Amino acid sequence: MSAEHLKIAVRVTEVQPVNALITRFSLEALDGSDLPVFSGGSHVVVEFGSCMNPYSLMGHPFNTRSYSISVRRDDAGRGGSRYLHEHVKVGDTGLIGHPVNLFSLNLRAHKHLFIAGGIGITPFIAQMAQLSQPGQRATAPFELHYCAQSADLAAYADRLKGLYAGRVQTYFDNENQPLNLVSLLQGQALGTHLYVCGPSGMIAWVRTTAAQLGWPSEFVHFEHFSAPQPGKPFTVELATSGRSIEVSERQSFLEALEAAGVNPPYLCRGGACGQCETRVLACDGVIVHRDHWLSEEEHQSGQKIMPCVSRVNGRSITIER
Amino acid sequence: MSQHVLQFKEETFRDDFVYSNSRWAIDRFPFPFDKDSYMYAVNLEPHTTGRAGSIYEKSFDVDEHYVAEMRERALTLLEDPLRCQSLPHMTLAGWDLLELIMTHKARDYPELFELHRDGLQWRWVNKPLGIEQSFIFGDEATLPYGPMEYITRQSQGDWCVLDQRDANLWMDAGMVTTQADWSLDFDIGMNFFEWHAPVPLAHELGIFQRALKFLLAIPQGAPARRLNWTMTVHPRHDTSPENYPKWGPDRTTVTAENVAELMYLRVELQSFWRLPRSNALVFPIRCYLIQLNELVSHPKWAKRFHRVLRDLPKELAEYKGFERNRALMVQWLSQFDDGALTSPGGGPN
């Protein structure tokens, strides 16, 4: 299912620098109507200028007047986050997709244990708001463990500590406060679900540690969007139609397909949802996989690619489209 | 086109079986065969609404059988409350569903339903059933039943509310009183592959893998739908395994003389909706029944249905539970089939 026809025109109503790296944007529907209710952990694909990136919704999930996203500036990327930081002002208009949740709360949990790294805090802000909604019967308790480089870069930490006293613990690298993950995980009661969002290294560390301690994978949830990176140009051969498409340096593989009128379905454009999965028939070069959807074996096999974030280092690739 | 004014009928779905379709209901019947043969397919399409007069005109169709069907549901629940179940983690999805149905019905049928909202203080008016209810959205204590049970006692069709987790769907809540021989009480807590395990042939075709991938990705605001079908003896809604002794023997009463009167084509309009707060998926299964005598009033349907039943693989006829009476139906329908070509699509003309 393509999210194409579900776009909502929005207007920026607030641009709030949070710290040296992060800026928060508030968005309202351009026509003044309500935005859809969503579930904590949802993201939207945000489209300003020529960039389409997924961002977690961090406002209250049941607030239909406005959405909030926090954007971390990525100077090494293709410029999507930089564009938002440098060019988007209050009153500007853009498009968003409908909310999609690839990082849903497991509502059967007896307890929710959240581990955030840096900007990975955003989906948890919405999830904690949802779990604290008054009138919700028998909501399971939660606990947040929030790691950041420094207190200055720990966006929203003070606010969250105020809202959820006793349930938020911070760990700052520059104050030498490591998170003792083994002891944290070993101290959890059965029925606890673990959620991690942050840099790849952190997600891998938490998943590996949990697996080593015997946590079933169904109790460990993670979300990680990649961003497509610039790279050398390459040619795409479409086996079905016999057409040839060029992917330029700063274009993603998916954007090049769309520019040529080929529209694979997507829900995230960040290598997480699996919708744009494409079969590779031949490749003259090496596939640089950046997704979190395909398995290690599938990456090795070279038979599949996620064009939203991955590309080819080489001359050409032939795909089944 | 003039607006059809609904006249709710006095009907029964058990004992004396007082049931019929008006000309209007026959003409809009969702005849499920777009060609002269049938095989499983992932026949999912966007649930787009709008075609005036059709069962697809509104999100949740209300027709002349509405009031009678809701009375039948209440009777079935009185005898067996386990037809409606909701596991504890599904209450939020129940509120999502209540909101979805109330907002759509109030918008689509303003002459029948009203919803007045002031923050969380809601008032719901259901004129056909004579209900007026003020309640606080999110507070179960302010409704006579849980939110899913409350609203599905007022909505035609069965309702399966599926939790989405571990890249699978789980039958964790539902209101199921109109089922084609399956049991919510048996399936509750099962995942997508478990509850489909008894279906023949489709697993080998990879149907369920593809269907699950599609369903998991259904986004908010973009529902999907498909049709399914079987045959039922009498216009009976409650063909449940729990009550098999009450309806199973009906199959032995069909003869060449009464086949056109006793046999009903039963079509399910299944739709799939993402629920916003819970991220669950709701799967309404709306059942439409048409007697063979009514069906053959459209010559194209008569010809095509003859060919479909005649050529259906035996496994499917057995799974759908009508192999025993298939020959009688095919024999009776053959009188309407002159062998002429039929036009493509499921419409009557």
- State the end-to-end distance of chain B: 19 Å
Q: Count the helices of chain A. How many?
A: 7
Helix and strand sequence of chain B = HEHEHEEEHEEHHHEHHEEHHHH
User: Which protein chains make the most extensive interface, counting residues with beta carbons within 8 Å of the other chain's beta carbons?
Assistant: A-B, 33 and 28 residues
What spatial order of strands do you see in the largest sheet of chain B?
A: 1-8-9-10-6-7-2
Radius of gyration of chain B, whole Å = 20 Å
Oligomer: heterodimer
| Proportion in helices of chain B | 25-40%
Shape of chain A: globular
- CATH topology of the largest domain in chain A, which one? Rossmann fold
What would your notes on this structure say?
- The complex is a heterodimer of chains A (321) and B (349).
- Chain A is α/β, with parallel strands linked by helices and 321 residues long.
- Chain A folds into three domains: 4-101, Translation factors (Elongation Factor Tu (Ef-tu), domain 3, Beta Barrel); 111-223, Rossmann fold (3-Layer(aba) Sandwich); 234-319, Beta-grasp domain (Ubiquitin-like (UB roll)).
- Chain A is 18% helix and 32% strand.
- Chain A is built from seven helices and 17 strands.
- In chain A, the strands form three sheets. In chain A, strands 1, 2, 3, 4, 5, 6 and 7 form a seven-stranded antiparallel beta sheet that branches. In chain A, strands 10-9-8-11-12 form a five-stranded parallel beta sheet, with helices on both faces.
- The longest helix of chain A has 13 residues, at 200-212.
- Chain A is globular, with a radius of gyration of 20 Å.
- In chain A, 44% of the residues are buried.
- Chain B is of the alpha+beta class and 349 residues long.
- Chain B has one domain (23-43, 51-334).
- Helix content of chain B is 30%, strand content 21%.
- In chain B, the strands form two sheets. In chain B, strands 1-8-9-10-6-7-2 form a seven-stranded antiparallel beta sheet. In chain B, strands 3-4-5 form a three-stranded antiparallel beta sheet.
- In chain B, strand 4 and strand 5 form a beta hairpin.
- Chain B is globular.
- Chain B starts with 22 loop residues before the first helix and ends in a 15-residue tail after the last helix.
- The mean pLDDT of chain B is 94.
- The interface between A and B is medium-sized, with 33 and 28 residues.
